[in-house]
Amino acid sequence: MLTASGNDSDALLSISFKLDRRRPVSEQVYSALRQSIVQFKLVPGTPISENSICRQFDVSRTPVRAALQRLSEEGLVDIYPQQGTFVSKIRIDDIKDSHFVRRNLEMALLREAGRDWTKEKSKAMRDVVDIQANDIKRNDVDAFLLSDERFHQLFAIYAGREGVWNVIMTAKMPMMRFYRFLGTPRRLPIVLEEHLAILDALDRGNVDAAENLLGAHLNQNFVVFESLPVKDRSVFAE
Amino acid sequence: MLTASGNDSDALLSISFKLDRRRPVSEQVYSALRQSIVQFKLVPGTPISENSICRQFDVSRTPVRAALQRLSEEGLVDIYPQQGTFVSKIRIDDIKDSHFVRRNLEMALLREAGRDWTKEKSKAMRDVVDIQANDIKRNDVDAFLLSDERFHQLFAIYAGREGVWNVIMTAKMPMMRFYRFLGTPRRLPIVLEEHLAILDALDRGNVDAAENLLGAHLNQNFVVFESLPVKDRSVFAE
DNA sequence: CATAGTATCCTTGTATCCAAGTAGCAAGCG
DNA sequence: CGCTTGCTACTTGGATACAAGGATACTATG
């Protein structure tokens, strides 16, 4: 049982992290790093030396390297051989592509899920929306984003294509990092309304309307991005 | 300069492979293995011992492990700790998801590319179709599949979303492995016709028609799969 | 003072060694 | 005969040692 405190010079991860030596270490390092990056606790451009991570988790370089390579494939870190590894800067094109993939796939999933829509499915999803409302009351943004994810995932499950959700999840990551950068709290109640409107349309049997509402819903996050008064340009590429 | 011949007991890769020690070894091992798996030269279920790969490429386990981990994330190999690594069996659900992702994303890309369609773009794509016709004449299936890929990729480029193509490429892999299993040659000339029909619709300015034609075109590969008289069930999961 | 050269420390890439878990088989016991 | 038990030969996961390239700061030289 080891704690990732690290000394001050290596204080990249403020979170204290308990390592479970019985489970694969590389997977745990990967999860911890990914979470820190997506939650913007590791800001773009931060150098991530393999050795510094080793010290913080008190493990060898092997699992750390495995974790970094995975993150590199997902575009969250950039590895420059013989130079260093860095939290990747946000690339506008990445976010646009991320949004494109997510939006089109989710709309297609809803279309399929809507073909055999039932009251039970509607009820289950409305329960999730209730949880989200509760999350807002408690001002728990992390929990909200988690249940929001659950809401969207249910369309994939109801469409019988859970595998597609994995594709969406990995594609989503650049976008999620961006959400954290914006700090979304103001829009949260509106998200609820939009979720409910989608379910209402599905309950009426109007799948096309639901699909369009979902498309608009996902676009809302994006327009915020388009009309962004960027102050801190350092987190962006170029 | 090393050749991946290996002794008879390790003859997993029939291809002779020259290793360039100046470039990253792990990347080369990854490419070689991926190609062998997708081209069905490594049949599903084949055990891939890290050590056997080491002997064949005459490198250490470290880069081999990195390559196998990448392949594992793409679903091309299954790693069972302390048991072994195997070329993954084809999972029907994977193929369905693969097709779903590819079809929806490509149709969306065509929709965007069709918005500012020009004669130059049409010409460039018709050139690719010409190359494909040539590939058929020369009976070069490998070349055909490559230029076919190029044809579809151009929609991503013209839509200004090359990043999306990477998503499609990784998602496509289970499907591509399946093409090789079927042995598609009979349908190749029809593919040409369908490509030309899509371009014709775009030239007429009828994007919706082009999109539907593309959807049908991609479905064709899939119906072959649905009505498959499977003889060799051993390559499938379960 | 400016600049070219160099030494050193940093980085990641690769090789090798050890640990731990699994499967198969064979010997021994009930 | 059937079951158990332990040995053996494998596997991958992790730790450590070594190699090689890049960045930087310092030094010597023009």
Overall number of strands of chain A: 4
How far apart are the termini of chain A? Answer: 42 Å
Shape of chain A: globular
Largest sheet of chain A: 2 strands, antiparallel
Strand content of chain A: 5-15%
User: How do the SSEs of chain A run, as a string of H and E?
Assistant: EEHHHEEHHHHHH
SS-derived structural category of chain A: mainly alpha
What is the oligomeric state here? homodimer
pLDDT averaged over residues of chain A: 88
Into which percent range does the helicity of residues of chain A fall?
55-70%
Strand order of the largest sheet of chain A: 1-2
Question: What's the total helix number of chain A?
Answer: 9
Radius of gyration of chain A (Å): 20 Å
Low-confidence stretches of chain A: 1-11
Which two chains touch over the largest interface?
A-B, 21 and 21 residues
Helices and strands in order:
The structure is a homodimer of 238-residue chains.
Chain A: E1 2-3, E2 18-19, H1 25-38, H2 50-57, H3 61-73, E3 77-80, E4 84-87, H4 92-113, H5 119-137, H6 141-158, H7 162-182, H8 188-203, H9 207-226
Antiparallel strand pairs in A: 1-2, 3-4
Helix pairs in contact in A: 1-3, 2-3, 4-6, 4-7, 4-9, 5-6, 5-8, 8-9
The first copy, chain A, binds a DNA duplex (30 and 30 nucleotides) through α3.
